[in-house]
Amino acid sequence: MRRTTRYKVEGANSLWHVYKTVPFFKVVKNFIVIEIARYMPFLKAKNWLYRTFLRMDIGEQTSFALMVMLDIMFPEKIKVGKNAVIGYNSTLLAHEYLIDEYRLGDIIIGDEVMIGANCTVLPGVSIGRRAIVSAGTLVHKDVPEGAFVGGNPMSIIYTKEEMEARQNR
C-alpha cells in the first residue's frame, strides 16, 4: 500500500490548482536544476546539484544515469540510500495530480538498490535495501529488501531468499 496524503480540490481538476500547492518560482528553479542534471555526465556534480538546490537526501556513491526525471514539484520528498543506481530515463514521482484531488508521498530507496532503465516509481513507495527493479517496471507498491521485481503491474520475480539461493548455486 502506498503512503500518500490526499488533498481534495473543488472545481477544475487539481492540476489547475498547482500554484496553490507549490510556489511557481520553486517549480522554475527545480525544472532548471533537473534539466541540467539530466544531461550531466559527472555523478558527483549531479548529486551536489540535487542535494544543494533540491534538498534531496542522497547517499554517497549513488548514481543517477542520464535522463533520470525527478519530481519537479516535490524533489525533497525523494530519499535515496548509498551506492544505489537509478537507471537511464527513469522517473521518480512524489506527487499525483488527479481530477478531484492531488496526492503527495515520500519515495524511499534503500542502500545498494538497482533500478533499471525506463522505470517509474510512484509516490509513497519504499524500495528495500539491495532490491533490484527490472527495466521498464512501474513501481506502484513497496519492494521488499533484497527482492527482484519487474513488470507492469509490478510483481515479485524472486524474493530475497530465492535470490540468495540462486547466487549460492
TrEMBL record:
Protein name: Acetyltransferase
Species annotation: Pullulanibacillus pueri
SUPFAM superfamilies to which the protein is assigned, alphabetical: Trimeric LpxA-like enzymes
Upper taxonomic lineage: Bacteria, Bacillati, Bacillota, Bacilli, Bacillales
Pfam families for this protein: Hexapep_2
CDD domains per record: LbH_MAT_like (cd04647)
Entries under InterPro entries matching the protein: Hexapep (IPR001451), Trans_hexapeptide_repeat (IPR050179), Trimer_LpxA-like_sf (IPR011004)
